[in-house]
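Progress note, project year one: complex with zinc ion.
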Amino acid sequence: MRIRAAVLASTGGPVEVGDVELAPPGPGEVLVRLAASGVCHSDLNAVDGTAETRCPAVLGHEGAGIVEAVGEGVGRVAAGDHVALSWMPSCGRCEECVRDLPHLCTVAWEAMDHGGLMDGTPRLSQGGAPVYHYVFVSTFAEATVVPERCVIPIPKDAPLEIAALVGCAVSTGVGAVWRTAQVRPGDRVAVFGCGGVGLSAVLGARAVGAEPIVAVDVSQAKLDAARELGATLAVPWAASPEETGEAVRAATGGGLDFAFEATGREQAMLAAFLSTRRRGAAVLIGIPRSDAIIPLPARTVARMERRILGSFYGSIRPGRDFAQILSLHASGRLPLERLISHRVPLERAPDALELVRTGAALRAVLTMEAPG
Ligand SMILES: [Zn+2]
Ligand SMILES: [Zn+2]
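Model obtained:
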């Protein structure tokens, strides 16, 4: 079938919306008609080469829609089912999956790099030449073919634009709070970097009764947004990690139980660590450059039992957590709709990427429905 999709021709090149051929789903694959896709910083990292992806590629990894067809042997979903997409299709058999760490599946991770589906080949093409999938799901498109394990059934009354965000930013931010850190009521937390992931962490922290919830950012607009979503204090980024850490400790009566870092910048990671109290932990969510090093005051690790926790995809189980997050949204306890600052038609995908690049968007969502 022929679809409209946003294609990155080469790393560093422009993103252009054009016609792309999409092959039918093979065995164990699912064709999804997309309704919405969030635009994530990782998409920008693929465009500018911070995290290189195989090109040409259809970008986007945060989508939801309705199943249109299924390949041979697919039992998890059927045509007409509403689904959110997970970009981490765990294999269920590798050592990490068997250790109950499916979000760290090594088989899916290796397959991801080839730009194909689980068999290594793409279903996308242009003029007979292959076009590659971005982390399996390629959601900047009217439709996509994905491995069965990427489709997570959701209730039919869940808004698809919210479900799209649950596929990456929301699960990453909320999951870091609930699953990686297991924050308890009354825990003191801060979120460094208040974009889509950081603000999701703020919402997750509010939902479990963390207090205080400190927002830290260089942008006053982002701090204001975090306050509106439930942060109880705002601390502007100071001149250095040391001064920022000191300001957070002073504002919280001695430091944090959990400092969530969502920017991927070493300076912010260090500030997060320095803002913790005894037995506190810096929870590192943001993906840094491959050569990044964080210099830590080592003595305080042992003396204060300070910790560093890594958090990838919020340590979530999509099959369990997507539905739970959407249920809490439906009951009003997780107001995820407030993350969406811009809705942009697919045809204007480059404009949506620009909104993310400039920091103007909390979360920009691409909408696929034909206008009118
Ligand atoms: Zn993402
Ligand atoms: Zn696995």
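DSSP finds eleven helices and 18 strands in the chain.
The two ends are 23 Å apart (CA to CA).
No further modelling is planned for this target in the current period.
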